[in-house]
């Protein structure tokens, strides 16, 4: 990044427009997969912007970026605010990016107040860009925040491979994450994340600000049916062991079982890898990524076990073998109640009656909260609930409402105001 380029300062619209151009293609939204060249450009842009605003920039060994404002000095406690700059393939502009850039603008505004003596921090502030929140290129998602909070060992994260077999560590090295960690801030006393809702709850309730009390649980299963490669022409039908046929039966059974018995669970089979993926070879391996999301862990246990039984049946019917590559439960998180109270009270003082709500999706704030870092998650509306799509949109008035609340919350937290009045 050319450090002589002048950045827009604390103008969220201007910085958001500039960031939105990185990885954008006409009609195809934004593609900044984690640790890709586009991600590298976005990181450099973010670092240059924050450095021009006076921040000290450091990154850790998994590539999390910290733009540090050392207002209270060495040894003082920290507040973090941020989100992620990586996107889904052909993703929207707002998911994650808005949270990082809004936190950056809030920090720059507060920095001006600190310099003018109007705000007197007892805490330092870091604006954070967490690596690979999306989990599009590397699974699991929430990688950077999970490494920082200690839930995922660094070596395991760096060894994750993408669909082309490239380890995350190598991909990060290629965009300048060299493992040298610098002076990384310690675990913060609070983390605050502003994010778009990606659903329609706020719009339907006619509210601008959501205060997240917790998340749904998720059960994520990766299953492979293993058959036998064979010529699609001469091989007698009776001899075929078709893994794709098994996967198709498995997907259909999954939907039928959940729709009949647990219709309120959100579910998907959203990724399919077929090997060897030739029109003339009966499929030898078909791997499907399944997700079930709901509030009740016991129900996810029962529902997941029922579909696993159906997957075995699909294997038996097709003469294939079933392998469960992953079957992980993400428990429902409860967000930090003292921070919820602060956010709710601050939102009201900014003129917005907040909606207390749950998040269906996981976010970095949830990963941190689950590992013992008190975290707050603030939602603003998504038009039509559209997410992970180029049409993702949040109206400017809602963006400004979110920025105002985030800034006021951080102003309070950096001065030690952790509890509502
Ligand atoms: Zn996100």
From TrEMBL:
GO MF entries: hydrolase activity, acting on carbon-nitrogen (but not peptide) bonds, in linear amidines; metal ion binding
Source domain of life: Bacteria
PANTHER family associated with the record: ALLANTOATE AMIDOHYDROLASE (PTHR32494:SF5), ALLANTOATE DEIMINASE-RELATED (PTHR32494)
Family recorded in the similarity comment: Belongs to the peptidase M20 family.
Cross-referenced Gene3D superfamilies: 3.30.70.360, Zn peptidases
InterPro entries: Amidase_Cbmase, Bact_exopeptidase_dim_dom, Peptidase_M20
Residues reported in the UniProt entry to bind Zn(2+) 2: 95, 134, 388
Keywords: Hydrolase, Metal-binding, Zinc
Protein's organism: Shinella kummerowiae
Identification of the protein by name: Hydantoinase/carbamoylase family amidase
